[in-house]
Amino acid sequence: MSATGEELVRVDDLTKSFGSTRAVHGASFGIAAGEIHALCGHNGAGKSTVVKMLSGQETPDAGAIRIGGDRLDLHSRQVAQRSGVALVDQELSVVASLTVAENLMLGDLRAGWLNRRRAAGPRLRALLDNVGLGHVDLDQPLSELGIGERQLVEIARALGQDARLLILDEPTATLSDVESEYVYAAVRAVAATGRAILFVSHRLGEVLGLCDRVTVMRDGAVVATTAVAGLTIDSLIVQMLGEAPHRLRKRTGREAEGPAEVLNVSGLSVAGRVDDFSIGLRPGRVYALAGQLGSGASEVLRAIAGLVPAATGDIEVDGVTVRPGHPIAATRAGIAFVSNDRKSEGLFLDKPISWNLLATRLPAVTRWGVIDRQRWSTALTRLVGLCGLDGKRSADSVRSLSGGNQQKVFVGRGLGRSDVRVLLLDDPTRGVDVGGRAAIHVLLRDAADRGMTVLFSSTELEELLDLADVVITMHKGVVVRRHDGDVAGPVLLREMTHGAATPAEERR
Question: What sequence ranges are listed for the domain ABC transporter (predicted)?
Fold first, then answer.
């Protein structure tokens, strides 16, 4: 907590229902001036609804929000911003067709009707520098930036709003460890000026390393507010889930030896991104590509899935050659791909859960091009059970689900299918909290146990250590090392951030 300990933000007995569902009931906590305060909870715990009420996107049914002692009626985003609330949402709101400078000024109520780009230039330049984007030009189109850089632009924009309360909702979900450090430094600098920070994250390690206190929600209610000094990751998970974390059993040693390799990749290259990548994968195992943003791990997965036209190299599934750059050929060979962007490249947000689950298996649920209701119902019932979803909600839109359950729907498309031999997942638990992450890990482990080959990419040590049987580290487009079985976290981190060790470093 801050040195002054003076409470700047206070919520008391916040309650919000959607129809018959009570999303939040009686939530109360305070944030001191200069404090970085975390809000944690599993999928559906109510934290997103609290964020929406604080930022003016939803109006509480009951309760009070106070900033600086004044009770506020935050009935819109504009009113919240005028009241001193800035939000970095977990869904990007930057506009790819605008320049970086235009995005930084977008939505700033102080900018007025005239474009004051020239006068604002020094301030905008400082905002970029503060989040590690010193290499980015203000007049550069945002479309030329990667997703991690776009997230940093969004954070820079919020930091420039001079708010009394800054809400960061999963701000590092798309960032590498190095990029995240820029965010942490910027957040600490803002807190040092006496502003209040509400930090929502599923990365529990960063919560304990960055924040002063943690408020935990479960089933719509606040269950605890605790100083981070008295918490560990496991004790925080217990608060969130009500039970100790469960570790999945890996396949190692002789147990891991199995049938012949299903996927063989040799000499895979993508100009400027990946150089001479080769791998052989067996069924029944979970493999991971470990690397920071820009390591080439995502490009490898997309190239194997046929989504990179410029890719070169040899790809075989069960001995059958698959031409790079041809997604239909990859699909027919038994390769399924789950993107790291479920909103733009995966889900039909306004369509029912059932449509999303069965979208890629229409031949199995149709007869003569017409949906067979019996086949549809049978396939849906089986898949809903396999994914651990609520069958009663299968007619609801995917947009109505929490982020973790949306991701389960996306992952679920590739499960329980005899025509899928290799399941590729790019950052499969991005933006998903600890409860949803555990559920998705179980889905992937079960898929491997049923004979599928699973290959995923991740930047997070905890996920790599918990889920993968084999970890292949990558750095700057090349493979650093392959680790079968147990491996120390510091070793993985060293290889992910710095590549192969020199002979002198190996002897230390």
Answer: 9-244, 248-501
60 Cβ neighbours under 8 A, 6+ residues apart? 14, 15, 16, 53
Cβ atoms of 145 and 197 within 8 Å: the answer is no
pTM for the predicted model, two decimal places = 0.60
Domains 7-94+164-241 and 260-507 share a fold: yes
Q: How far apart are CA 296 and CA 176, in angstroms?
A: 13
CATH H-level superfamily of 7-94+164-241: P-loop containing nucleotide triphosphate hydrolases (3.40.50.300)
Tell me how many degrees the CA angle 286-148-165 measures, rounded to the nearest 5.
115
* pLDDT tens, position by position, 237-295: 788 877 655 555 565 544 445 568 999 999 999 988 899 999 999 999 999 999 877 78
Identity at 160, one-letter amino acid code: G
Q: Which residues partner with 21 through β-bridges?
A: 18
Q: Residue 475: enclosing H or E segment and its boundaries?
A: strand 470-475
CB atoms within 10 A of CB 21: 10
- Provide the pLDDT confidence category of residue 507 given band limits of 50, 70 and 90: very low
Cα–Cα distance, 54 to 12 (Å, whole number) = 12
* pLDDT single digits (tens) 184-241: 888 898 898 898 999 998 778 889 999 999 999 988 999 999 999 989 888 887 888 7
Show the tokens assigned to 455.
């290959």
Q: Work out the widest C-alpha separation in the chain, in whole angstroms.
A: 72
The encoded tokens of residue 372 equal: 């067979």
Helical packing angle, 117-130 and 147-159, nearest 10°: 110
Residues 6+ apart with CB under 8 A from 258: 282, 283, 284, 285
Query: Mean pLDDT over all residues of the chain?
Result: 84
The three-class DSSP label of residue 63 is: strand
β-strand partners of 287: 455, 470
Domain-wise residue ranges, the chain: 7-94+164-241, 260-507
pLDDT value, residue 117: 60
**Lookup: tokens for 244:** 């100790």
pLDDT at 411: 84
Residue-wise pLDDT tens digits, 77-108: 889 988 999 998 877 788 889 999 988 888 66
CATH architecture of the domain with range 260-507: 3-Layer(aba) Sandwich (3.40)
CA distance to 33, 99, 198, 399, per residue, from 69 (Å): 12, 39, 17, 36
Task: Please state whether 150 falls in left (phi above 0), alpha (psi between -120 and 50) or beta.
Answer: alpha
DSSP H stretches of helix in 88-175: 100-105, 117-130, 147-159
What are the CA-CA distances from residue 316 to residues 35, 281, 292, 484 (Å)?
A: 54, 11, 27, 22
How far is C-alpha 418 from the geometric centre of its chain's CA atoms? 28
Residue 321, pLDDT > 50, answer: yes
